[in-house]
Amino acid sequence: MKLQGKTILLTGGTDGIGLRLARQLRDKGAQLIVTGRTPERIAAAQAEGFEVITADLAGPEGVEALLAGLGGRPIDVLINNAGMGTAHDFREAPPVEADDERTLWLNVHAPIRLIGRLMPVLRSRSEAMIVNVTSGLAIAPNAGSPLYCATKAALRSYTMALREQLKGTGVHVLEALPPLVDTAMTAGRGSNKLAPEECARQIIAAMESGANEANVGMVKVLRAVYSLSPALARSIMLRF
């Protein structure tokens, strides 16, 4: 897809991977509409010249707020990037149900609902794209964050089925699978993290080339191991 002149709705675009995607997509000539929920980050993104719709997508009210803010404007690309993790390790403490519910909503329900509500608009465009940001953990989960891994696996499965349904239409479906990226969400977790700028660059390259998947950074290695031995890939990740 040629990104110049395209109108892109990017969720979670005021921080982390999303903010780097917004900056690089704008450099490509795209028109960005981003979402955020933290006042300070929203103000900073607006200071950079981005249009920001305030919406907390960890609940149905946030989806409605986003759609209301969009106001029926046509978009060419929907990037479901907003996501969150939550402590869910029975070796340390039982899960907090409210946090689990927000994680499920933000990572699974919100992308699916936005796709459903915006599909007529996307189908009306001559060329459109849906980008769902999942994770390498959707392929090989780790033991420390089972709920996060499960939500990303759910979105991956949904994305694969959606791609099949939309074959032959003007809507391309891309799944982006980042590795551990150096963002606020991963602070204090692991090492050798990928820079968010590089993660964004690889996702955009996949958008431009029309790929079905963007296996970013070390996820390429994980996919190679998984193709040889799924059990080995899972056993490696489940140690963490």
Topology:
Layout lengths: L6 E4 L5 H12 L3 E6 L2 H9 L3 E4 L5 H11 L6 E4 L16 H28 L3 E6 L12 H20 L5 E7 L18 H14 L3 E3 L3 H10 L1 H8 L3
Parallel strand pairs: 1-2, 1-4, 2-3, 4-5, 5-6, 6-7
Helix pairs in contact: 1-6, 4-5, 7-8
Helix/strand structural class: alpha/beta
Q: Please list the strands of the largest sheet in the order they lie side by side.
A: 3-2-1-4-5-6-7
This entry's quaternary arrangement is single chain
Largest sheet data: 7 strands, parallel
The string of secondary-structure elements, in order, is EHEHEHEHEHEHEHH
Distance between the termini: 37 Å
Average per-residue pLDDT, rounded, comes to 90
Helix content: 40-55%
> Which term fits the overall shape?
globular
| Low-pLDDT sequence parts | none
Question: Total number of β-strand segments?
Answer: 7
| Individual helix count | 8
Strand content: 5-15%
* Cα-based radius of gyration, to the nearest Å: 17 Å
In a nutshell, what does this entry contain?
With about 240 residues, the chain is of the alpha/beta class. Helices cover about 45% and strands about 15% of the residues. Strands 3-2-1-4-5-6-7 form a seven-stranded parallel beta sheet, with helices on both faces.
Key descriptive features of the protein:
alpha/beta; 240 residues; 14% strand
